[in-house]
Amino acid sequence: MKQQGLFITFEGTDGSGKTTQIRLLQEWLQQRGYRCVLSREPGGTVISEKIREIILDKSHREMDARAEALLYAAARAQHVAQVIRPALEGGSMVICDRFTDSSIAYQAYGRGLGEDVAAINEFATGGLKPDVTFFLRLSPEMGQRRIEGRQQDRIEMEKMEFHRQVCLGYEELERREPKRIIGIEASDSIEAISAVIRQRMEELLSCR
Ligand code: TMP
């Protein structure tokens, strides 16, 4: 039977530099002969990208927090069924910009929805969990500074208190799952961050 691919996710607040590290990891894996599928959440399929537009639309100020959590979960369910599971089963490495941890940080902590968020995501993903998650840690103040001047979406435009709660959510996740979630200071240099990621990937690939 074909060996399953690894499911690798990146997490962190906006402005933490995930995109650069995702690109570097993709290059590194491809140079070693691994097939890679790159994706993002919310998004990654036609349906999920449409849901993304609804969620992030700045004019949707009236969006209820539960509706928001369910829309993220719906986009994720489609993404898992259509892209992530088939790619992993086909032996590809899947690198995804955000996954369920984002919903725990932003909806469970940021919006204060609590434990229900984990439950709806368990349903949405059929229990799929990343093999490894790289969490780029950045203070909310620094995060806001880094995205100043950029076009901001509905979530990014939230108050500083919301972003503080999101950071607390990520810290709690890191404490709960230290084996899966590798926290790295986002203020470190690009090379230093990338070295930590490669080292963890070497370990994971060597024990397959
Ligand atoms: P992006 O800017 O990383 O593409 O993500 C879009 C926004 O959606 C970002 O501000 C984080 C937020 N988000 C959630 O609130 N919950 C989620 O489950 C995901 C995937 C993203």
Task: Summarize the topology.
Blueprint: E1 7-12, H1 18-31, E2 36-40, H2 46-56, H3 65-89, E3 93-97, H4 100-110, H5 116-125, E4 132-137, H6 140-147, H7 160-176, E5 181-185, H8 190-206
Parallel strand pairs: 1-3, 1-4, 2-3, 4-5
Helix pairs in contact: 1-8, 2-3, 3-5, 4-5, 4-7
The site of thymidine-5'-phosphate has 13 residues, from helix 4.
What's the short story on this structure?
The chain is of the alpha/beta class. The chain has helices at residues 18-31, 46-56, 65-89, 100-110, 116-125, 140-147, 160-176, 190-206, and strands at residues 7-12, 36-40, 93-97, 132-137, 181-185.
- Mean pLDDT comes to 96
Order of helices and strands: EHEHHEHHEHHEH
The biggest beta sheet reads: 5 strands, parallel
Structural class: alpha/beta
Please name the CATH topology: Rossmann fold
The count of strands amounts to 5
| Helical percentage | 40-55%
Low-confidence stretches: none
Query: Which strand order do you get reading across the main beta sheet?
Result: 2-3-1-4-5
**Could you say which small molecules are bound to this protein?**
thymidine-5'-phosphate
What characteristic shape results from the CA principal axes? globular
The proportion of residues in beta strands is 5-15%
Q: Name the CATH homologous superfamily.
A: P-loop containing nucleotide triphosphate hydrolases
| CATH architecture tag | 3-Layer(aba) Sandwich
CATH class: Alpha Beta
Terminal residue distance: 14 Å
Question: Which characteristics define this entry?
Answer:
single chain; 208 residues; alpha/beta; Rossmann fold; five-stranded parallel β-sheet; 8 helices; globular; binds thymidine-5'-phosphate
